[in-house]
Design brief:
The chain has 127 residues and is mostly helical. Helices cover 57% and strands 3% of the residues.
């Protein structure tokens, strides 16, 4: 089994297990989390997806195989390195981001709604 195949299995489980964790994203004050998720998807991540994975490797082990530049993430997020690290650790702990540069698929629909609202808010209203 490759690292990517192993990660895909873990993602399936984590997506089901994380539904209750998504509740806090509905809070209107969670915009910083949305922005952190969007920034994660835009960050260059190197993940050895085609390499063979150890049978007992878990998500922590897969994260140890992943690499990215936290400074790049901070720049994309538009914040300090310290705050970027804090946001990333929060997303990682909640298992909303994965070591291949993707996010929890349930977050994607919430982000789409957030982006649509932002666009509507900046567009001039018809009278």
């Amino acid at each position: 089994m490759t690292c990517q195949e192993k990660l895909d299995l873990i993602k399936e489980y984590e997506i089901e297990a994380s539904r209750s964790k998504l509740v806090f994203l509905i809070n209107p004050r969670s915009t910083d989390i949305y922005e952190a998720l969007i920034a994660w998807e835009s960050t260059t991540v190197i993940f050895p997806g085609n390499d063979e994975a150890a049978d007992d490797i878990d998500l922590v082990g897969l994260w140890s195989l992943s690499s990215f530049d936290m400074k790049e993430y901070a720049i994309i997020l538009g914040t300090t390195l310290a705050l970027a690290i804090k946001r990333f650790n929060q997303l990682q702990k909640l298992k909303l981001v994965f070591p291949d540069g993707t996010i929890n698929s349930q977050c994607s629909s919430l982000i789409k709604g957030y982006i649509q609202k932002k666009i509507i808010d900046i567009l001039p209203q018809k009278k």
